[in-house]
């Protein structure tokens, strides 16, 4: 390791000042850049660089002590050939214009009740081979509240099979602010996968792999505001499936939202308590001549739409509601299929 505070109940306080570099290269084992262990310990730095390479595994920064805190200032960078940052035990981390670059492991892991990370504005997470951000308030003392992740103008760019942009588990709250962007490139690599509570405005999600959905909500509520754009080259755009799963996708007349799907559907609600609510949204489906559905409700799912425009290429269907499902459309509705013989 490069820097470590000892374990136990005695806090260790480390101030690295400005422009410090921590390099750790373990050719035979497990490399850790910075480890903060003692209860109530703290780490302070500005324009910090951590570069870690481990033969078997690596972590850039690990906040493992109870109620520890890290303030990484502005312009810090974490590089690792495995996990970027792991934080848990109701600890907190703050930074802005922050960069994580890693391969094989998860870029940022937020574990346990009460743990929180705020990456301010203009941060970037680039991961090759795994998920960009994982958050789950699944362990610890539930009196400490949900795990939290906050950022605005955040960029997440991930590569790899099943490498999700953000994986949000139960008891988690995520606020992506305004102008955040999620890009994935890998089969089954969903942009946003959630069982928690998520909010964002002017969000861009672009996924390109086979069976990769733009936004998939399995529980909780995801609310995405105006000027948001979801694109899935080979999967669905928006989908809810599971217990009490809701997506609110709300554009405005001046800043409409959009969905593009080159896969099975633009927006879909797939279980009895699954709901997709949309306003002022343009939906385009184009599966290169194969069957694709603009709106698809099944197994009791419910879709509502206000001022929607649906455009379907050859082979597409505009709206498809299956047994016991419901689609409610109000205000102006435009359905534009490629030829007159296409089914709206």
UniProtKB/TrEMBL annotation:
SUPFAM superfamilies per the UniProt record, alphabetical: Pectin lyase-like (SSF51126)
InterPro entries assigned: Autotransporter_pectin_lyase_C (IPR012332), Pectin_lyase_fold/virulence (IPR011050)
Domain of life of the source: Bacteria
Name of this chain's protein: Autotransporter outer membrane beta-barrel domain-containing protein
Organism: Escherichia coli
Taxonomy of the source species: Bacteria, Pseudomonadati, Pseudomonadota, Gammaproteobacteria, Enterobacterales
């Amino acid at each position: 390791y490069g820097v470590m505070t000892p374990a136990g109940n005695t806090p260790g306080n480390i101030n690295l000042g400005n422009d410090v570099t921590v390099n750790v290269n373990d050719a035979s084992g497990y490399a850790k850049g910075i480890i903060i262990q003692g209860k109530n310990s703290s780490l302070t730095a500005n324009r910090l660089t951590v570069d870690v390479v481990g033969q078997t595994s690596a972590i850039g920064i690990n906040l493992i002590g109870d109620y520890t805190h890290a303030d990484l200032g502005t312009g810090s960078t974490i590089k690792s050939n495995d996990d970027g940052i792991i934080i848990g035990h109701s600890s907190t981390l703050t930074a802005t214009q922050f960069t994580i670059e890693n391969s094989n492991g998860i870029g940022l892991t937020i574990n346990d009740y009460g743990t929180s990370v705020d990456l301010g504005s203009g941060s970037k997470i680039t991961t090759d081979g795994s998920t960009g951000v994982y958050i789950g308030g699944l362990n610890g003392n539930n009196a400490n509240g949900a795990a939290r992740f906050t950022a605005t103008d955040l960029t997440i760019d991930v590569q790899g099979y099943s490498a999700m942009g953000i994986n949000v588990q139960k008891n988690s709250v995520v606020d992506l602010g305004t102008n955040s962007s999620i890009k994935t490139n890998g089969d089954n690599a969903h942009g946003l996968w959630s069982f928690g509570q998520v909010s964002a405005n002017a969000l861009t999600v672009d996924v390109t792999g086979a069976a990769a959905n733009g936004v998939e909500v399995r529980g909780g509520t995801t609310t995405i505001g105006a000027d948001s754009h979801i694109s899935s080259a080979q999967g669905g755009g928006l989908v809810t499936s599971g217990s009490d799963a809701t997506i609110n996708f709300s554009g405005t007349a001046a800043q409409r939202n959009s969905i593009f799907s080159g896969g099975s559907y633009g927006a879909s609600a797939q279980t009895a308590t699954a709901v997709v609510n949309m306003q002022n949204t343009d939906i385009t489906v184009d599966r290169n001549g194969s069957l694709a559905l603009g709106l698809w409700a099944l197994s009791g799912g419910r879709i509502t739409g206000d001022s929607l425009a649906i455009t379907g290429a050859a082979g597409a269907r505009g709206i498809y509601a299956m047994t016991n499902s419901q689609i409610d459309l109000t205000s102006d509705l435009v359905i534009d299929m490629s030829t007159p013989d296409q089914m709206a």
